[in-house]
Amino acid sequence: MLEIKNLHVSVEDREILNGIDLVIRSGEVHAIMGPNGSGKSTLANVIAGRQGYEVTAGEILFQGKNLLVMDPEDRAREGLFLAFQYPVEIPGVNNLYFLKAAVNAVRKHRGEPELDAMEFWDMIHRRMELVKMDESMLKRPVNEGFSGGEKKRNEIFQMAVLEPRFAVLDETDSGLDIDALKVVADGVNALRGAERGFLVITHYQRLLDYIVPDHVHVLVNGRIVRSGDKHLALELEAQGYALYNTEPGRARRASA
Amino acid sequence: MSANAQTLERLTEGGYEFGFVTDVEQETVPPGLSEDVVRLISAKKQDPEWLLEWRLTAYRYWLTLKEPQWASIQHPPIDYQAISYYAAPKSKGDGPKSLDEIDPEILKTYAKLGIPLAEQEILAGVAVDAVFDSVSVATSFKGKLAEKGIIFCSFSEAVREHPELVRQYLGSVVPYRDNYFAALNSAVFSDGSFCFIPKGVRCPMELSTYFRINASNTGQFERTLIVAEEGAYVSYLEGCTAPMRDENQLHAAVVELVALDDATIKYSTVQNWYPGDAQGKGGIYNFVTKRGLCKGRNSKISWTQVETGSAITWKYPSCILRGDNSVGEFYSVALTRDYQQADTGTKMIHIGKNTRSTIISKGISAGHGQNAYRGLVKILPTAENARNYSQCDSMLMGDQCGAHTFPYIEVRNPTAQVEHEASTSKIGEDQIFYCNQRGISTEDAVSLIVNGFCKEVFKELPMEFAVEAQKLIELKLEGSVG
Predict the structure, then answer these.
(1) Domains of chain A, with CATH numbers?
(2) Nearest CA to CA, how far is B435 from chain A (Å)?
C-alpha cells in the first residue's frame, strides 16, 4: 500500500532523512518510534506533501502511484490522511461545514455524488459515537478554542469521517491524558481493517499499549536503525534510545 | 495635464459635442463647475427655489474648501473642472445593443454570481424595453408599500411630491458644511433615493430588488435620505454584487439616515464598482459620506458594508447617538487587491445616556492592495454609561500589500466603557495545508478561510445578500494566493 524507497529529505540544505526504506501493506499498523529530532515528523510531512521539504533522492509509492508528484489535496483525495501533531485553527469556519467540504471534495474525486445536508448529517452521527464526539464540538469553529485533547479527538473524528485508505498519526498521543488517549486509541482501533494501513508516529511506548502495532521501527538520525514486532516497543521503553547512540554519524554503527 | 485629468477628460469629452441641446435623451453639461452649472442642474431637476438656494450655498462653501489630505490613499490630483456634472440618462442608441457587446470577463462574473439574464442586461447597460418584467415587479412593490404609507421613490420625485419632508430632513445629518465631498454633492447632486417609513410601520420587505434594478442609472453624485418615524423598521440594501458598467470616475455620494424614537434602520451595502485593471489603471474613486442620526430614544442604526470594488474607497458610515439608549453598529468587510486602496471605517458619536455602539471591521489585502481602518469613538460629557466595543482585524495575502489601523478614541465622561481590539494576520500556509490535507483545493481553502474571517460581518447581511457577498469575495480572491 505504501512503499518508501531510499528516501532522502533535506530542509534548508540540511539532510533530515537519509535513506528510509519502509513497506506497509494493507491491514498493517506500523509504529515509528524515535527520539526528538530523529526525523519522525519530517517523514509524516513529506508523505502528506507539506511544502518546505526537499526530496533529494528516493521515492514513495502509494497504491502503486508516485506520491511525490501529487499535490497534497490529491494525495488526500486518493485516501491519504495525516492526523496532525498540531491541528490548525481556522477561526469562523464551522467544524461541520469544513468536514462537509472535505468529504465532498474526496467524493467528487472518486466520481461519487456529493452528499446533501441530510445524508451528511446521518453519516456524521454514526461516526461521532466512535470518538465520543460532543455535538457542540461540531458547531464550533475548526479547532478554535479546543483543548489539546479535543483537537486530537477532532483529528481522529475527521479520519473516521473521511475513511482514508492509509493514515499517518503524527504524535497523536502528545499532550493527552490517559482517558483522552484511550478515546483516541479506541477510535483508531475501530477503523483498523484489512483495507486500511496505519503509520503511527510516537515518542513514547504508552500509545502502543492501546494501539498494538504489527511492526515497530526505530528512527534515529534520519534512518531506521532497527525493526521488530510489538516487543521492540517495550524494549525501548525499558532501555531508552541511548542504546542507539543519537550522535550523528554513529547511528550507523548502532544499527549494524 | 495629469494622467488622471486626461482620463476624466476622455470620459467626459462627449459633452462638448452636444452642448446644451434640449433633446432630453442626450443632454450633457460640458465639463466644469460654476454657479451657472449649479443653476442649470437645478433647473433641469425643476428644483423649488429653496433647493436651488441650498445648492448655491453649498457650492460657495465648497469653493472655500481644500480636498482632504488625511486619508491613507494616493492618487493624482483630480481636476474638478474636467468633470461633467450632469448627464441625463443615455439614449438607447448609445449603450451596447446586446450582451454580445459586453466584455466577456464581466459576463463570466455575472454567470458565476448567478445573476439572471434579464438583470444582467440592465446592469450591463444594455438598452431594454420599458415593458421589461422587472419594471412591473417594481411597480407592484410600490403599490404594496404605498398601502402601508411607505414612501419609496427617486430623490427627484420626492422633491416634487413630498417637498416638506425633504426640506425638513435634507442636510440634517450631513450638512453641506460637513466635508469637501459632501459640499460638492450638495451643490450638484442629480438624483438618488428617498425612503420614508411612517410611525409604527414595519417595512414588509427588504428594499432591495427594486433598488437593484433602479440603481443601474443613478448618477455619480447621488443622494439618499431615509427617515424612520417612531417605532418604524426598515432594512435597506444598496448596491449590487455585479460589477456595473459605469463611465464616471469620481463618485461622491451622500447618504443620510434619521431614526426617531424606537425606530430601527438597517443599511446594507455591497460595493463592487470597477476597481481598475491589474496594473492599477482606471477605476472608480469612491468618496462617500454616510451618516445616521439616532435622533430618538431607543433608536438603532446598523451599517453593514462589503466593499470590494473601486480604485479608491473613502467612506466612514457613522452614527450620531443622540437619543438615550440608542444603538449604533458598523460591520465592515473591505477587500483590496491589485492596486486598490481603501480608507474606511466609522464614527460613533455618543451623546445620549446609555448609548451603545459596536464596530466590527475586517480588512483583507491582497496583491498591492492597501487597506486602512479609520475610526472615531467619541463619548461626550452627556453620554452617561455609554459603551463601545471595537474589533478591527486585518488579513494579509502576500507580501506586497498593506493593512493599517487608525483608531481614535475620545472619552469625556468617566462612566463610559470603551474597548478596542485589533489583530493582523497573514493567511497561514499552515491553514491552507491543513485544508489541502483534507482534500480541499487551495482556492477553496482560501475562500473558506476568508469567509470564516468575515463571518461576523456576513451574518449581519440579509440571507440572500450574504450568499452573494460570499460568492463575490471568492471571485475577488481568485488567483490571489499560490
Answers:
(1) 2-255 (3.40.50.300)
(2) 8
